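Work Package 3 (structural annotation) set out to generate three-dimensional models for the target panel prioritized at the project kickoff. During this period the team completed the workflow that converts sequence records into discrete structure tokens, so that structures can be stored uniformly alongside our sequence database. As a representative example, we reproduce one entry of 307 residues exactly as it appears in the project archive.
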Amino acid sequence: MAYVNFKSPERNWDCFDAGRYSKCILHEIPELRSIGRATARRAKTHLSLEGHSHPYLIINYIERGTFNWWTKKEIHETSGGQIYIIQPNEHFGSIGAMWYPSKLFWVGVDLESKTQNKGDSFLGLPKKLADSLMKDLNHIHQRIFHAPTEIVENFNFIIDSMGKPYHYLLHLKIQEHFIRILTTVIEAARKNDSSHYSIMVHEAIRFMDHSHNEPLSLPQIVKKLGWSASYFHEKFRNEIGITPAEFYLKKRLTKAQALLQHTNKTSHEISLEAGFSSDSYFIKVFKRFFGITPQFYRSNCRMQKKT
């Protein structure tokens, strides 16, 4: 397994590729083809990832910051707390990757490893469990969806274990964390499938979508729909994967991003249209969420269009 590490005051990069070097503990888990993390501590504009593909499934998790990806002819923007799925042999890359102070994790999952060709089951699990796990991984149709932050612990454990000598207990622990990553992603994909949302959650999202300019407080939404606040909060988090407040804020910030990209409206006008009480509060929240100011974000969008 090849190991690539790069450190600087601005970036830190750890990447393990199972296909290039055999003397590594992950060689014992052929389904785990690659894993890594990348951190950008400062805003940058020229860190794009060139187009390429892999013969296995790639699961990306953005812990913080914003990444712009492209697959085929589509461009997608992802931000903190989201999964980004790249299918086997799918050509992909990024535009202005890691513009913002960011942290990204990824894992490559081989759904057709040589062990399975020899008759062994996926990850050595009992056949029924292995078949169910593979079926669910093959049926993730969403490209982008939210996932709980607990997944970071699983990524970090595996990556931090790479330099350790082989031991069967460590092997089992790595496999356990790998399975947790996969099951977390499957569960998150199900929760983010809007066709499976309850009427309660659908109604709440509808209220949020129609009240950007004059955002309702969550107690107001709960009151209008006649629900218990605690029950609503629990049900929303269970179905969406994040709290109603986080979801609502991300919706308003997404609208602000679109206005910054596609209009010449001032920051003050955008803050009002996206439902923030003041220009200064909008800038503060935007910077806390993305790591940069709205003006810096707009400048980078314009630079990206030129290139």
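The chain has a mean pLDDT of 82.
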